[in-house]
């Protein structure tokens, strides 16, 4: 079974519609170059993801490279606000090999711009392999440990408030799975929110295009648009949705890893159920003009999380 970019109908990691470096106003480009104390000789836009903001690797005339994200005055206000939240979150994260440091932020000519270290890495190849899934699992449980307790300076909401409404959305399953099975899945979602303490600052959107794998074995988790408080193993479990849909036995991986083997299977299922509830609620909404592949992506994740329970 294959994932996004194949049966999903989305081009593999080619889903974004973004402005390019040359689309940034001349005044803002000049401000960036002054801040870098170098001239930009090339800009390569990221083509993965679903946010319509600037995301470009800039090559400088002194041989350095930086990754620049930003939004301008003609774009929707929420986009610049999201990038500001992301920059503030990353700035407050403790140093960890799985994160990418923020270098600086800049307001210039109506643009908000944030520079991050440029990372030599690629998104996980699809379909997922067990080796890559294990590598990501190991990294994310380590990252979760470093974010327990949550670092100061980040006012993140609890996952109970953020995910609680998704329990009711699971009622949409009844026509497909029947009343009894739907009730079981809703109970899994409800129980994990009640029984698994939110002790850890967690990324709220762990998916393939937010993961970077380095040739040196490193794994980076990027795009911290916001955080939430969740169990320490939350990020690792969410990252396993796509590998599971690609045929990797992630239940065995989770059961064997020292950091997750004591997590009740019902809690793992509960996290997957909460995501199923979310995708049931958004997958069939109106298409988004600025992100033409978003709904296709969400429908794929809806079906992937549904198959998790159909295999039970």
TrEMBL record:
Q: What name does UniProt use for this protein?
A: Phosphotransferase
Q: Which Gene3D superfamilies match?
A: 1.20.58.840, Transferase(Phosphotransferase) domain 1 (1.10.510.10)
Lineage start: Bacteria, Bacillati, Actinomycetota, Actinomycetes, Micrococcales
Domain Aminoglycoside phosphotransferase residues, every copy: 62-243
- Enumerate the residue ranges of region (Disordered): 1-21
Q: Write down the species.
A: Flavimobilis rhizosphaerae
| Composition skew (Low complexity), residue ranges | 1-12
Q: Which InterPro entries match?
A: Aminoglycoside_PTrfase, Kinase-like_dom_sf
């Amino acid at each position: 079974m294959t994932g996004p970019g194949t049966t999903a109908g989305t081009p593999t990691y080619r889903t974004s519609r973004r402005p390019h470096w040359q689309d940034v106003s001349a005044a803002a480009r000049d401000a960036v170059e002054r801040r870098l104390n170098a001239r930009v000789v090339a800009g390569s836009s990221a083509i993965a993801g679903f946010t319509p903001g600037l995301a470009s690797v800039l090559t400088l005339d002194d041989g350095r490279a930086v990754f620049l994200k930003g939004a301008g005055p003609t774009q929707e206000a929420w986009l610049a606000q999201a990038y500001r939240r992301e920059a503030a979150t990353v700035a407050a994260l403790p140093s960890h090999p799985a994160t990418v440091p923020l270098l600086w932020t800049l307001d210039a000519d109506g643009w908000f711009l944030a520079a991050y270290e440029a990372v030599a890495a690629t998104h996980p190849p699809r379909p997922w392999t067990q080796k890559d899934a294990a590598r990501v699992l190991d990294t994310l449980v380590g990252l979760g440990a470093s974010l327990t307790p949550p670092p100061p300076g980040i006012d993140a909401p609890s996952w109970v408030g953020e995910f609680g409404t998704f329990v009711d959305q699971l009622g949409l399953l009844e026509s497909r799975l029947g009343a009894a099975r739907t009730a079981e899945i809703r109970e899994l979602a409800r129980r994990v929110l009640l029984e698994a303490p939110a002790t850890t600052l967690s990324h709220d959107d762990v998916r393939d295009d937010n993961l970077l794998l380095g040739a040196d074995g490193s794994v980076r988790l990027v795009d911290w648009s916001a955080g939430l408080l969740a169990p320490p193993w939350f990020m690792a479990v969410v990252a396993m949705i796509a590998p599971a849909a690609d045929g990797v036995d992630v239940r065995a991986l989770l059961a064997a890893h020292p950091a997750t083997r004591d997590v009740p299977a019902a809690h793992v299922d509960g996290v997957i159920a909460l995501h199923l509830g979310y995708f049931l609620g958004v997958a069939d909404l109106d298409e988004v003009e600025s992100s033409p592949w978003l709904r296709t992506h969400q429908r794929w994740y809806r079906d992937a999380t549904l198959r998790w329970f159909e295999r039970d």
